[in-house]
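Field log, afternoon session.

UNIT: design team B
ACTIVITY: writing a sequence onto a fixed backbone
BACKBONE:
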């Protein structure tokens, strides 16, 4: 049998390693460019002192803490205003008006959103701007809006609470939101008081049962990486409990719901990973 070219052997093993990460952590890294992943994984290989993907896979089995370091090395602990704009398109076009309509029918004015794993705050502020805009557009009387951002990283939470960001981040905020919800001063910009007023930040470890209830929309995006399958399922179970009937759950683009819990949710957009707790439970 002719020998496989060495490059293919390594590529094959990398694919297996990525499958392992997907199976263990539910995160599909195939969307990243192969060369990029190769370079980043190489950093971890040399950090732990192994030479092949296979040895590294064995190392991961022995040291599950290495998953977080691998995923950090892939720099996916970053965030952005309106990260994945198509998610926000569907969110603003379909989810917000439907939720506000439900609120109107139920004569409820309280709307509560939760950004679980909010990092430095860009996600909760994006949610706040989207909701304030949706409320204005639909002339909704859902005037009691709160967006709760939680994280375990207290340094990130301190940045979130300030609500001040470098101007280069403005490029991710749609121009009509910039005009209405942002004040720019030199090299930085601040979210306007109208946005700051509805946002709350607090420390919360998702490994523990989150004592949060009455939530209409949970965004938990790009956080699954830190959890094994079992903890992911437990966490989604906690979101289910936290959600109001007809409430929404939004996951990251490469994250999947375990089949057992997926059956309980309705799918709003499989591409954008938007799910809904049925308004009427059987
Ligand atoms: C990659 S960032 C995602 C930020 C944002 N959701 C987004 O999609 O842009 C992941 C965040 O999850 C937080 N995190 C990790 N483990 C956590 C835990 N056990 N409880 C709460 N937050 C956690 C990290 O501190 C980090 O800020």
């Amino acid at each position: 049998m002719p020998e496989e070219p060495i490059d293919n052997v390594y590529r094959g093993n990398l694919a297996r390693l990525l499958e392992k990460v997907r199976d263990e952590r539910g995160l599909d890294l195939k969307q990243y460019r192969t060369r990029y992943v190769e370079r980043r994984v190489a950093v971890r290989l040399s950090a732990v002192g192994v030479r092949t993907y296979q040895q590294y896979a064995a190392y991961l089995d022995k040291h599950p803490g290495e998953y977080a370091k691998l995923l950090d090395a892939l720099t996916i602990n970053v965030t952005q205003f309106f990260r994945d704009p198509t998610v926000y398109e569907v969110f603003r076009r379909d989810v917000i008006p439907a939720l506000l309509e439900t609120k109107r029918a139920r004569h409820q004015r309280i709307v509560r959103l939760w950004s679980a794993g909010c990092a430095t705050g860009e996600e909760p502020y994006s949610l706040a701007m989207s909701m304030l805009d949706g409320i204005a557009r639909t002339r909704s009387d859902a005037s009691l809006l709160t967006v709760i951002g939680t994280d375990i990283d207290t340094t990130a939470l301190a940045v979130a609470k300030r609500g001040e960001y470098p101007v280069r981040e403005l490029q991710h905020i749609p121009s009509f939101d910039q005009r209405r919800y942002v004040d720019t001063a030199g090299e930085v910009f601040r979210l306007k008081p109208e946005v700051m007023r509805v946002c709350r930040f607090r420390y919360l470890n998702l490994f523990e049962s989150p004592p949060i209830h009455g939530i209409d929309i949970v965004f938990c995006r790009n956080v699954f990486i830190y959890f094994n399958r079992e903890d992911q399922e437990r966490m989604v179970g906690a979101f289910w409990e936290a959600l109001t009937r007809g409430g929404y759950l939004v996951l990251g683009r490469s994250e999947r719901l375990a089949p057992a819990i997926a059956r309980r949710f309705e799918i709003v957009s499989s591409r954008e990973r938007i799910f809904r707790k049925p308004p009427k439970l059987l």
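LOG NOTE: The chain is about 45% helix and 20% strand.
NEXT ACTIVITY: expression trials, pending approval
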